[in-house]
């Protein structure tokens, strides 16, 4: 039977009885209690939506991408042939793709990326997702078929996979992927901003595949989708700088990171513990600690829960280079020397990837991506003037101040004084 | 200074420094943790938005309504004159209106209407809002002016107020009001449904005032806004039947009501205690009780938290009359006689007001509302064929079943059997 | 090969190489020069869109409706079985449906309905479309297959057809049809009004079929589509009263009708002549005659081209009964007696069908339409409280005045005087 | 009295009684018969909207820009002071701005830019607009005040004006102007594309002014509007390349240009003749000439009216440099040498300005534009990484072929052969 749910971005999302069962498992239901954007609602009040609806949305988007590719004669045949090498047919591959999409975020910690501070070095939330999927192996294989866990894990893990699975993996998480297409649209919708919209229907319509180097297939687009792809990249850039790295959100991310140190013992090496916690627990925890003045994490909790945040006094452009950053650190040090006994100063580096394509004049090697034009494979960065010139990363540095005694309000005059001072120091520091 | 926040429905919402201070008080910030639609997200996953953004939205909408009325020569002068009687000018009245809009929901219990079961008989969430506003009196009057609390309270309380304040009160909560205009649009946006949209800009554009019977002014509309008003009424009807009284939401409201009995002691007669609790506390509470099998409220908590809900086996039309309802009760009794040892049966009455206007063939007296046409005041219900024929209320009755042992899953066959049985019984019962 | 075009309402519209050829024929290209809404752009400046884009839109909508029905197991099988009786498979039926949709308006006269005054009594623009399709028979059958003309004609003509074709015919023009779904959305889009929007995706999603009385199938909807259907009916009502029968558009329709008398000789009984004329010819004609003062049609042409229109002085409600209309005629006569030597008076009856369903308390028999609920076929009018109470027709009467000498401007005072006089007369006339 | 009209892009547009009179003059009404985008409807069927609605839209947008600037204390005062120098107050300046906006396109020839081929060298459609405005001088000054014509003309003409008028002129036609804001949104709406949308509300919200070099004021934006401005520039780029210079539209522009030679005598030096002609005359003319085989312009008319257009066989990137263009010319010549006896070859240069700002690595000097950040004026191109890297112009070269006998259809094979040949030649030509 076909089940459906109304989604705020994609209209109806359909799912099978088997998928319904997976959705009903507590491990997945827990995502109802993990906000997609942590404390972003302090800036955009509408941003309280959850990983639950995002995960359904990714399942929908990856299916649409796959179906679009399969409906075209040429790419449909290429996919069929490639999957056959590893013994899969299109229907089964689609099932695996959908399941992996659904579960890709199942390992998220409370407050999503905000909580990641407690994951051991070198691990990512994807590793936790994998642990949980492996923990569910028996139940999954009973519902689907033997080996599905292994296939799903390959679509989520970072390391290299069977070349024939790479296309599916790229659909979930690659250069043009269901994950980011969904979150850009969804976050824009709930925040009430226009930044993240792009013509996703046209982009999906223009998808194609080409032969990869190592035997599998690579995602590509037809020439008429190039401006929709540019719009996706710009949407990412705008959402990162305006929402995900908004100056107020960044300061709370700092507090969160500090606070999460107190949770370090809670997650054993076995990541399954993660499923015990969600935003409700973390909020309840803040509240308690915000009252316990003797608690070493009191300050973080108090600031977060009572929205007592630092004020920004200095900000670089969105595209700093190493020199700019060194300079900012210099300004921060000098200001600290002068003011640290009166004020609490803080420096923050907000950074992110805008894209990973090969571009002009960047040290770091980018990924090749192809555009099909007149039946020829052309490099994206030769076809798109916008992307060719678009830096891969942005990196903004900000300096904030606040009173040393957090219950005390810092005056507007003090902030202005430090703002002016920062600009003076900027001129001196080299 | 003008502050602003991005709203998912209205674009930017502006507010003054004084208003910012009120917004920052913990009593208002608490609304960040009260979901607008309780457990509706079990049906519409996007519906996790909060009373916080709604309250800002109502402040914005009521200002737009007031400003629109004031900008027109005739209604602007009438308002000025009417306010003068009670010693107010338009600027002050606007401040009071905005503050009352902002605070009208400040007394909401956890899970909004879901939690209302614990308010003493005869009281409503508006009464709690008033208690809290009175509790804040000193701080408010320091920020604004002496007497503002009293004015704000008059705009929120149900009882009759100074006739000259009635217009402001109606703007917040009347037949065409900022509260419902905001929630219809906002709930639609986050649920992802179209039902609640209507041409609110046109409706506001067509607002006017006429002399009321008791000295104040009544809201009215110009003839060209009549179809926008019809659309508002229909939006309300659709949102009520499709979202607020959705069969799955209603069953959880039943559990919630049952569970809230366990909270009865928490709120003293002094309603100020309400500000201690929000959705986080209630959810944490569910979780605890859902594990305590001996707890008398275990069943409710378990059902709510683990989403184990009854299945609907019978449903009437949306517009039952007393006879239909008696019949449904008869069906319920007869089914209970037969099945209650095997199944847990439950009957639910979902009802709501669609509008309060005077209409054809309804016993209950409706409110007169006027449309201005060719400079004459005409009765709305003579001008609008749609509203004239639209019932004031809907009332749907539903019968649900579930296993007596809630951990046991009821089979699809059992549900089908009872569905058929219900239809058989329906034919017999008179 | 698949061809596509960007449509302002439906996104991309796809069509085959064969369909491309038909689209390229001058008989179809002529629709580029027939505005969808005649002189409505005098009221809504954006309303200059053409029958060309509407016809493509209807082809798209009827395909979506048919495909939706075929994708569902039960209705898909019923359709297959029914078509088999007359020797058609689903693929062929779809081709016929698309072609009939594309060509259904090919017989429209200049200014669409505006020009219909010159069609002989008892004939409609559909009859002209049929004549043109029959004229194209040889070319069509060369492209498609023998007999397609006959099938297409059956889907367009008013008279009863093979019962097995009724479903296809109803998809193009019935109670829920592709034609009106497209024009409501499209006219709203270009006029810039909200009236005509409704959740067409949901409505199409809820389509189903049931066994008809005479052997074929009837369109029906599932219960969850009922509010979308109500919205369609309301959209029709609003668009008719606010746009298609707008008081200013109606007055120009009167002039148009008068002017078209001068074209009577142009169309022989053989309707093929129609393909020689379009809006460009008619406009060029207006302009010429607007300068020829001796021409008996000068006045109409001058008024139309120079936008010298009567002013409305009296208007009834949108739902007059026979008595109201008699009364309006009485008012008109009395005013004419008094004023006709100074002013040019005119009475206009604007009327239209809102729907054809069976409803409460209407003399005229309505069409039965079924809603599928709990696998049972229920009468729409018992399920929908809105439609049950919604009149099938509206009929508004308006009286206009203008100067007898059209170059002379009538004063605002004169208009006001007659307005007041009309209201006085209204009170007297019974 | 306030008059209003419903606009498909901006909702209601309001205008005064005086403006209504101007709108009703035949010189302005003529714009109802000038399509905004000439033959673009051959590619996007919805693109039949007119200069009439665009002109109203520009009046609305320029008012919003001006009002936004005036509402802010600082910029409001600067504007007041600057206008005072030339004896204007804000209210009068607003009137002039609105009138100039309304009339800026009144001199457009049939098919808008398509018809410009017949304007004498060195003249532009703005010059014709000015001629017509001067022709209307007496009537305008009777309605408004003495000297308004002169002020309006200064806002439209290209040459330098009073420095104090420059701000108003820039609002109508500058780097961020009402004209392009309106047409990008409007053309997108009617074509049904997403390319031209940008957050115009935010952009207007962020407008500010700074002291200009020569005494007047310059438009600037506040830092928070920078991404909205980037989006405007990108919207322009996308609309130019995807719509205005679409390969099919360009080929028809070529035919139009050729055809318009036949109209050369029609416009005397006195441009007032222009008001005698519109699209209806031009289309009627095409049709006639398309039948007259002996007419020297028969081929152009036949191609345009019967949509017999060349096929593109070669296309460069959107950002060619001089070398690329020389190369394309080389390819064209070589192909002509080989094929010109069998085919009709044609080379087309589609080019346009994307913006005029100062950017990196462009020879041509750009205009400085300032962003206000921390109360400091910063160069736009230092603040916006996107605009800094965005070329000011695009220039695409295309080669087309068609049969020498236009009634003959060129085969798909022939097109493919020439496409391949063109790519071969491309490799050889340097």
Task: Report on this structure.
Four copies of one chain form a homotetramer. With 430 residues, chain A is α+β, with helices and mostly antiparallel strands. In chain A, 49% of the residues lie in helices and 13% in strands. Chain A contains 19 helices and nine strands. Chain A has helices at residues 17-24, 26-29, 51-71, 73-85, 90-103, 125-135, 137-143, 148-156, 166-172, 178-191, 200-205, 226-244, 247-260, 279-291, 298-306, 322-339, 380-383, 385-388, 412-428; strands at residues 2-7, 11-16, 207-211, 217-222, 311-315, 343-353, 370-373, 376-379, 393-403. A four-stranded mixed beta sheet of chain A has the order 3-4-7-8. In chain A, helix 3 packs across helix 10, helix 10 (178-191) crosses helix 12 and helix 16 (322-339) crosses helix 19. The mean pLDDT of chain A is 92. Chains in contact: A-B, A-C, A-D, B-C, B-D, C-D. Chains B and C meet through helix 12 of B and helix 12 of C.
